């Protein structure tokens, strides 16, 4: 009897617990539906520029305002990236109060389509067996190739061990790709992704153009579709890209203002693009002079030059031709291997680079640079190897430390000024705390200003060595050549972030090297840090000897000999920008010792 009572009691307790759990679940579900304020999924669309505007995340529409908080702790925002949205509102588009990037495995492929398998794949393959699929790349990781992909409308995840092949052009948005994958549901796991001819994704082979039916054009992009398929406008002319168009981005990502080379069939209206690819900026600077299809300038190191100066020069990895009409200037020292020079050149119709003018800009090879980054490790007593922004710098007894904007500690934002020694090591000459991000566009991005030692042999995509540190560019990297073309010895600003131990480049831009401007002057510093409406973030205007100079993150501020303070003397190298602004390439503190000469007295 007692045992039966005990069993009934246990049964009643279990039944009540189950009822309670069901009621709690139902109550929590109703609360969640009534007050739901979070949404997680991959980005389908986002504003073309900036972060404020219309977003679509996993099919749901949101509006981001100036009050929206953006967090990129898990990576930059891009189409296909997993995000979590906190929002308010009763109907779409909801108002986003916070958008944060998440790990790619935080998003699942609910309702995702199944890949179109190749005829050789086994439809009845068991879960985990590898299969193949073809499709156009619709989204891919913002930097590198590891992460979330959408190919042919299907979500894939490419892990760190995945293999990527680009034998038939770059893996880029709009390219045809073949995927070797496994998994029972999206996002499927990609073991290998390789580029394929466009015909593999369309089922047809593009017709060979008849002579005269195809044109080749160099021009700058005015506009282009988000998915690459559709209308393109280049130098005011409209073209159409379809599934057979070949897209190449070996010289950087497609963007408004970027130089491109296109091949288009004129048998349609508008002309249909057979191929369009990003090109080096100077290819779009042709003038009206006969026999000139492009022109530009370059700052780079002399690698070899002929006796008598007439003939072939190798500068920054490019061969330039000179003749008796070429102007040679050696005001800043004689020509020599390793010396930095500025070259004004044109490109002739036969492809030759002809130098109209070559002038020296430094007396010896450049070995100095500076960087803005976050301190990751500090040696005991501050002497030894520091890690700043993923790069190692060695501090010695001559290194100066300055703590104007907080303490020098792990996590502090700093500016490090360094030199390259004979062993290729970066020796820190000065480490100081700063509020500046060096002009970086994202808080988690880092910035370095240095000289190119090596660059990819074909195009701009691949590994770069800058002041003996390796940086990696990909199809999403922006390349800017306003102050000369990119070459060995060029002075560049590199914006990057560290991912899995790699320095992935967001943007690389040429700058006028320190002490390579057109004007040098000396005077007393009247004012430091005045900001005008024309100055951008991280830029200042200094007044020296009554003249205003724009100080940018690229400016070499050399205060190792004398502090750059109001009342002290400074030597300024500068150039005049198109808008008339005087931009400083270098400001160096100097001390002038007065000398008094007395008449000799004979006795």
Radius of gyration: 30 Å
Q: How many E-type strands? A: 40
Q: Please tally the helical runs, counting DSSP H or I stretches of 4 or more residues.
A: 2
Q: How would you name the CATH homologous superfamily of the largest domain?
A: Copper binding periplasmic protein CusF
- The N- to C-terminal Cα distance equals 140 Å
- Tell me, what's the shape? globular
Structure description:
The chain is mostly beta strands and 603 residues long. It has 6 domains: 38-106, OB fold (Dihydrolipoamide Acetyltransferase, E2P) (Beta Barrel), CATH 2.40.50; 131-202, Copper binding periplasmic protein CusF (OB fold (Dihydrolipoamide Acetyltransferase, E2P), Beta Barrel); 214-279, OB fold (Dihydrolipoamide Acetyltransferase, E2P), CATH 2.40.50; 301-360, OB fold (Dihydrolipoamide Acetyltransferase, E2P) (Beta Barrel); 368-510, Copper binding periplasmic protein CusF (OB fold (Dihydrolipoamide Acetyltransferase, E2P), Beta Barrel), CATH 2.40.50.320; 519-590, Copper binding periplasmic protein CusF (OB fold (Dihydrolipoamide Acetyltransferase, E2P), Beta Barrel), CATH 2.40.50.320. Helices cover 6% and strands 47% of the residues. The chain is built from 2 helices and 40 strands. A 6-stranded mixed sheet has the order 37-36-35-39-40-38, with no helix packed on it. A hairpin with a 2-residue loop joins strand 7 (147-151) and strand 8 (154-158). The longest helix is centred in the first third of the chain and has 34 residues, at 2-35. The chain is globular, with a radius of gyration of 30 Å. Residues 1-36, 109-114, 116-128, 203-211 and 531-535 have low confidence and may be disordered.
